[in-house]
Amino acid sequence: MRSSETYNWRLTIGVATTLLILVYLSYILRLWARSRSAARLWWDDYWMGFVLLLCTAMSVGDYVGLLFGSGQHQDELDAYTVRHFKINLYVYMCTWSAGVFGVKVGILLFYWRIFSTTSRAFRVSCFVVSGFCFVQFIINIFVFIFQCSPIGQFWGETANGICINQVSFYLASAIINVFGDLFVLSLPIPVIWRLHAAKSRRVALLFVFLLGALVCVASGFRILSVTLIEEADFTYSNLAGGIWSTVEVHTGYITANLPTIRSLLRMKFGKNQTAASSSYQRGNSKAQQPNNAIGTGGTRGRWKGASAAATDLGSDTVALTTVEWADPASSGASGISDSGEPLPINGINVRTVVDQVEEQWAPADDRESKTMSYQVPRF
Length: 379
What we know:
The chain is an alpha+beta fold. It has 2 domains: 3-269, Rhopdopsin 7-helix transmembrane proteins (Up-down Bundle), CATH 1.20.1070; 283-377, no CATH class. It has 12 helices and 7 strands. Strands 3, 4, 5, 6 and 7 form a 5-stranded mixed β-sheet that branches. Strands 1-2 form a two-stranded antiparallel ribbon. The chain is elongated. The termini are far apart.
C-alpha cells in the first residue's frame, strides 16, 4: 500500500473513531445532566438516542469503505471491490440524509421544550423551519434511493440503466442543507436576546446555542470536497467528501447536546455562588419570605418557588421572566390589590422564577439536624 493510501486509512479511522467517542460521551453527559436535575426525559432526549444510532452507522460505513477501496485509485481495484464500495456508499448516503435531518429534529424538539411558551411567533417559526427540514429530507432520501434506474445501476449491477448527474445533485443537496442549518440556528436568537437577564449572560447563552455554527463550517468544507469528485476515480476522489460528511453530522450531534450539558458546569462551578447566596439569605430574614415584595430600582417584585417546574423541565431550561400588567385604578392607596397581592409600580409586575434550595446540617454533638432554606434565581 502506498504512503498516501496509508495516510488515508489513518485519517479516516482517526476522524471517525474520535468523533464517534465524542458523540457517545456527549449523549452520556446529556443523560447525566438530565438525571442530576431530577427531570423526566423528554422527546428530544429519546430522539437523540435514535440519532446516536445513525452516527454509529456512519462511522461503521467509513470503516467498511476502507475495506472496499476508499482512498485508493479505482483503476487499481478489481470489479468486485469497486462494486461493494459503491453499495456501501449508497447505504452511507441514505444514512447521511437521515443523520442531518435527525440532528435538526433533535435541536428543534429541544427548542420546543425550552421556548414554546414564550410567544406564538416562535411556535409558528418552529413549525415553518420544521416543515422546511422535513421537505428537504424527503427530497434528499427519495433522490438518493432512486438516483439510478434501476437502482442496481448505481453499483454496476446492470449495463443498460441510467443515472442522474450525481455530483450536481450532491452539490445542490449540500448547499440547501446549509440553509437549513442557518434557519435552525437563528430560531432562538430573538428569544434569548429578550430574556430579562444581564447582557453578559445572554451573550453566554447565545454562544452556547450558536456553537452549532461549527456544523456550517463542516458543511462548507463538504461542499468544496464534493466539487472535487471525479466519477472516473470515485473511490479515491470521494474520500474527502465522506470524511466531511461524517464530521458534519457528528459535530451537529455534539453541539446539539451542549446546551443540556451546560447545566453540569453550572452545578460544578456554581457552588461558590450558591454558598454566597446562602450566607446573604441567612443575614436577611426578610429575603427568606417567599411572598415579600422586594423593591429594586423602583420595581416591586415577588419571589416564587419553582422546584416542581424545575423537576419537569430540567436544569437546562431557561426560566423566562414574565411581565404582567395591572390596572392602577383597581388599587387602593396602600398599593395592595383586592386579592391581597402587592401591586406593581407603574403598572408592571415583574415575577422572577427561582429555585428553592435546602441544605441540612447537624453539629457533631447535636443529633437534631437543622434545615436551611434559601432561594437562587434561575435564568
